[in-house]
Predict the 3D structure of the following.
Amino acid sequence: MKLRIKGNSIRFRLTQSEVKIVEQTGLVKDQIKFSNSISLVYEIKAVTGLDYVEPIYSENKITLKVNESLIRDWTRSDQVTISSTFDFSSDENLTILIEKDFKCLSPRDEDESDMFPHPKQQ
């Protein structure tokens, strides 16, 4: 899973196997290790009783709680993105994107075998 942060926006990009994992288990996560004792964990968790995407940051962990049916519909369709805006004050918000990760159109030095086929290559 890739994590991209820019200003007040955060994007999670999932490979095909990660999409299957979150569909089957309701949880997919990864981490960035900064040392043997310090890491940043980031995860997507499907939950019931929630009508929106809720971001939580606590103890070096970013959790996106997402409505279970929203995740299920996304994983079982050609829909590329779950997009949400979380308002945390009257004039500030966090833009959240959860996306299926596509292969690049140009060659790169990265294993793309588990990425989704790019729509322009089909």
Observations:
- The radius of gyration is 15 Å.
- The chain has a mean pLDDT of 88.
- The first strand starts at residue 2 and ends at 6.
- The beta strands are 2-6, 9-14, 27-33, 39-47, 54-58, 61-67, 81-87, 93-100.
